[in-house]
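Components:
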Amino acid sequence: MLPPTSQYRGRFAPSPTGPLHFGSLIAAVGSYLDAKHHNGIWLVRMEDLDIPRTVKGAADDILRTLEAYGLHWDETVIYQSQRTLAYHATFEQLRTGNLLYPCACSRKEIADSALHHCDELIYPGTCRNGLPPGKTARAWRVRVDDARIGFTDGLQGNIMQNLASEIGDFVVKRADGLFAYQLAVVVDDAFQGITHIVRGADLFNSTTRQIYLQRLLGFPTPAYTHLPIAVNAQGEKLSKQTLATPVDAKDPVAMLLRALVFLRQEPPAELANYDLGSVLSWAIIHWNKSRLNWIMQIPA
Ligand code: GLU
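Structure:
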């Protein structure tokens, strides 16, 4: 273990759209081990902002599973559904700074006229200089400038993106009136003083958007590490949509060892005979994320 660094504040931020499955367990275990290896604080934040996707009881179920795995959080869990006022204040700060604009485009209109970058649709800027006559505002977008935004990922190396040509003006308040993930995550990471973000590589492409918002708002940028995502035999991310099976809270040692194998930590076979606390202590001491360098996905 490294010497105490009280500055390390990490987090696991699940969306309670269902029970914890192997893919989300990897993000929980990876962020926990990285925090604890650095003698840091590890927090859990429930990202239950997307009410239509949130499943009743899932947040409690996730917390019970984390406890069963010995992954104990250090401060009170915060719930995004209770933080609307904070998102609203930040939204107003951006809006009054003339950094946002209302957008009337439907998904179909965007799909019909958008430019493409890799698989992403780039908003073509239709409403950037005002709503077309007769149209009403649906979502709110933040103007991105032509600057390149880069960061050094803890596993994936140096990344540089031009938001204007690779992402486009992106949504901070959705057509259904809910604040968007990109806005909420930036507000909450700053609010909770997060210094290190360890999460799945499915969010890799969101990071420059988040750094851009941090700069607009004068927030510090945490260190980012994107872990390989667990995929099924078809190469699809394990998720509720791909019917990933929930992790079993009854046999945490076996599942934790599976997670450690996935994370290439090479746990010795005899650990299977030890109790949960011993397995976690071994994993914290031996955590070596560099074994995952450059890996974006691994079959589960
Ligand atoms: N709530 C997001 C998810 O479950 C993760 C957000 C994050 O770690 O930044 O995909």
